[in-house]
Each structure stands twice: as structure tokens, then as C-alpha cells.
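Morning F.,

Quick status update on the modeling queue. The single chain you submitted on Monday has been processed. Sequence for confirmation:
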Amino acid sequence: MVIRLPRSPSGWTMAVFGVLATLLGAVGLVSPEALLKALGFAAPASGRPPSDYTRTFITASSMAAVNMGVYYLLAAAADWRAFFRWTVPFRLLTFAVFTTAVVSGRAPSGFIGVGLWEGIGAVATAVALRYDKPPEERAEAASPPAGGQRGAGPVTAGSTSGSGSCTSCRHSHR
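C-alpha cells below.
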């Protein structure tokens, strides 16, 4: 099995988020009370009554976090930038909802970390996407053009190198 590392800054932001989501999800599956405590949700001193479904909710949320983390890791390995872009507005929405829950008193102050994690991650991914070069440009920068000379002269879209392939995008335009 070959593990592919991310090939772009935006891919790295997704991989980091994916690893953290997977690990925190695993913690919630193995030790729901530890995750609740880390998020600032204290257990009642008298224990949880049978009608308290907090552990059920944490199990479901933790499994979703594991799945989401794996999706992010697979997208990072594939350098699937469309997926990266799709996550940004939804992670910003999650930041807004979670932060509002803390500010309004619906969630404990420790939960602000989850909102910040989402918000900072979304901004980091958006910035990385802005500065990433498209895969074709990275490939061109890494290998010399046909003929082995860099800067051999201007290239115009549609010009061919005798092979019928466009020298600017390496596709056939026949």
C-alpha cells in the first residue's frame, strides 16, 4: 500500500484537518466521556440517567468525524481541489453556528475551540487554494519543455511541436 502525500498547500490543509478529525472521532468512539470533558461538557455528578442519550449522540458524531476525516485524507491524496473549495463555505458556516452556540450560552465555552478549528481551517484552505498553482503549471515547472530548453521562445496556444500536440497545454487540437 502506497501512501500519497498531499501535492499542494491546500492539500496539506485538508490532510491536517482530516487527520485531526479522524483522531478526535476515534477518541469519541473509544472514550466518549473524555471527548465530552475536552469540549467542556461536564458529566453530571450523579451520573447519566438511562434517558440521557449523550453517549449515543457522541458515538454518532464521532463516527461522522472519522468518516469525514477519511474523506478529507482521500481528497488530499488525490489533490481534489474542487472538494477543497466546496468545504470552505460549509466550514465557515460551521464556525458561525458553533461560535454562536457558545456566545448565546447554548454550548460551554470549551466548545469555542471546535468553531475556531473550523474557521481557521476554512481560511487556511481558502488562502492555500488562492496561492496554489494548477496541476498543469506545477508539472510544467518541474519538467523542461519539449526540446529540453527552457525559455526557447514564445509559445502560442494552438502552436504545435510537429507532433500535432499543442505546446502550451500538451493536448492534441486536431
